[in-house]
Amino acid sequence: MKDKLFILLQHLLPQHLLSRLVGRIADCRTPWVKNLFIDLFHKHYRIDMSLAAEENPRAYPSFNEFFTRALKDGVRPIDPAADALVSPCDGAVSQAGAISYGRLIQAKGRGYSLTTLLGGCAERAEPFINGSFATLYLSPKDYHRVHMPVSGTLREAIYVPGDLYSVNHATAHGVESLFARNERLVTIFDTEYGPMAMVLVGAMIVAGIETVWSGPVAPQSRKPQTLYSRLNPAPVRLEKGQEMGRFHLGSTVILAFGADVLRWEESLTHGAEVVLGRRIATITSKA
Fold first, then answer.
1. Which of 17, 164, 177, 209 has the maximum number of C-beta atoms within 10 A of its C-beta?
2. 147 is catalytic
3. What is the value of pTM for the model shown?
4. Is 144 a catalytic residue?
C-alpha cells in the first residue's frame, strides 16, 4: 500500500515543475541557502567526504557543485585489462542480463522496449536486439559523475523528453516501462567491440544532465532532439575511465551491447554494489 501511494503521488505531482524548481535552488550561490541544503544532505546521507577532492562540504559554491563533486586522484583506479568492461559509476545493480527479442528487464515480471528506450528508432536499436544490458542505479549518496566503461567515439547523442518518475526499487516494480518513459539522454558510441549504447535516465527532482562535450543537455524541448551526430566536424573520442557526463541529482545509467560481445560478472546481480573503474564484465569478442 505504501508503495502504491508513493507512485500515485508521483502521478499527481507536477514532475517537471518540481524538478526545475529544485534545480534553481540547487544552483543557488547564496551562502546561507546553499550551506543549509548541503548540511542537511550531508548529514542525512552520511556522505564520505574523505573521497572528495575538496573535503569541506561548505567550500562548494552551490549545492549542485557539491553534489557533482570530483574525487581525489587515484581513489577509483580503472581496471587496465584489455578484456575488462568497467563500471561507469558508483552505485548498485538494478538489473543485468540478456536483451531478449528487443526487450530489457525492468523488474521481476516487468520488461520494456529497447527501441522505445533508445528514442523510437528501430535502426538505432537493431545492433542491440539480442545483446546484453545492465541498469545501474546511483543513489543520492553516490558519486554522480559518469565515466566510460570502454574507449569509444561518439556516433550519436539524442535527448528524449519524458516523465520524471523516481527510479527507485518501488517505482521500478510499479510503473510500466519506467526507463523508457522518463526523460533521458541516449548516446551511441563506436568501440572496438562494436556499438555501445549508454543511456542517462532522468528522474524526479533530477535537475539536469550534462556531458563533457556539450555541457547541460536537459531539460530541453518536449520533442526528441539530435544533439550530436557522426556528421559533426568535431569528433568526440573518450578513453576508458574518462568522464562522459554527470547528473544534477541522482538517477540511472543503462548500458547495452550487441550479441556475444561480453559476459557479465557473476556478482552483477540485483542490488549488488558497483564501483567506478572495477570490472563488471569480460569482453569476449571484437567487432
1. 164
2. yes
3. 0.90
4. no
